[in-house]
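User: Predict structure, ligand flavin mononucleotide.
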Amino acid sequence: MTSSDKLSNRRAFLAFLAASPVLACAGFSSRWVEEVLAAPLPEQDAVVIKSVKEALNIFDFEPAAREKLSPAHYEFITDGSFNNETMLANRAGFSKYEIRLRRLTGITKVDQSIRLFGVNWDSPIFISPIGRMNAYHPDGAMVVARAAKTTRTLQILSGSAIILESPTAMDAVNSARGEPVWVAGLGDTLTPAVVRRIEATGSPVLVWTIDDGGANTIGAKSVQRAGVRDLDRGADERCAGCHGALPQISRIQSSTPMDVLGAVGALMGENSVKLSWDDVKRVRDMTKLKIVLKGIVTREDAALAVQHGIDGVIVSNHGGHEDASGRGTIECLPEVLQGAAGKIPVLIDSGFRSGADVFKALALGATAVGIGRPHIWGLASFGQEGVETVIEILRRELQVMMAQTGAGSIAKIRRDSLVSVG
Ligand SMILES: Cc1cc2nc3c(=O)[nH]c(=O)nc-3n(C[C@H](O)[C@H](O)[C@H](O)COP(=O)(O)O)c2cc1C
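Assistant: Predicted complex:
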């Protein structure tokens, strides 16, 4: 129901009450009723939550994160590429499927556990890699690792240079997690030396992200172009990887990687677009680690991944951060599953915001579902507790959907619980 629908319903109700003799008998004046009912209904975002206990769903963490983050960092995590075509499509895609609920399913207990590459996980919901975690919390990677440990969640860590070039940073993350996290390497950065470094972290899986290269994320750059400074970060070495270590840095004039690049400078830089399947063969031959390609969105590429000895794929468009295809990942999932033909697990992320979204992907045949921005909202707003609560809310929502469709376990989730619409 839209807010104008709500308003007109309220007006109709108001007119009815004001004319009703029942009110006067009960000692209420019609003016009092008018005042009470004419007050606007608070929308969810009227309150910025001050504690995780107040969260009604995971969207409550976004405004709470916004309060804590600098404008540019908030925009960078929020924004999509071009005009947000793909980011919006990720959300819109879920409305193309509806869930057929069963009644009286008798389910009192739901088992969400999955097994992936021989390891059991408590839930199919995993943490997707986000680069530059320090932008959202001073100890971003560590805090997420602690939350991943307490919730027994699969965490994929973005293998940015800062993390990989510092074995102690990686050790700290792994020890906070209690076991090696999966490391994601980006695009054309997978030289033999980098692959050796990833192997040395103990990561059992090399996630290779191959969908970067189309990013022109306007929001953060608009903030930068307008000359809004966030912090004096010159002295903070954690920021140097992105901002350079200049005191009183002015990104507009400096030549650091986070300079404002107009669209012409931003598009088609060093990235995955120039890679080919020969590179996949090269990296496959370089390591015995399991390799999961992140960013597959078509049947053809899923089939090629299988042919090239890849162990799994993640249907992903970087949360709409790197392309303007206008295709949501939930819409790409069926064809990727066809291409993979049951030979390798198919994971997915981009746009997942509720247990119902997660359920839809599982019912279509995905093995696991990742969350990017939502765990960062939790991280930025309430640290470890925020990440844990985001995960917990999604798990509970998934639990409800499974119980309401008669699925006591992930294996019992049925394709015919979904209807395609439109
Ligand atoms: C600000 C930002 C930074 C990201 N950094 C990385 C990265 O370093 N490596 C990577 O594989 N994916 C990265 N991603 C993509 C995420 O892993 C994930 O695919 C995406 O966030 C999922 O969509 P969602 O945010 O709608 O949940 C990034 C996404 C965003 C929004």
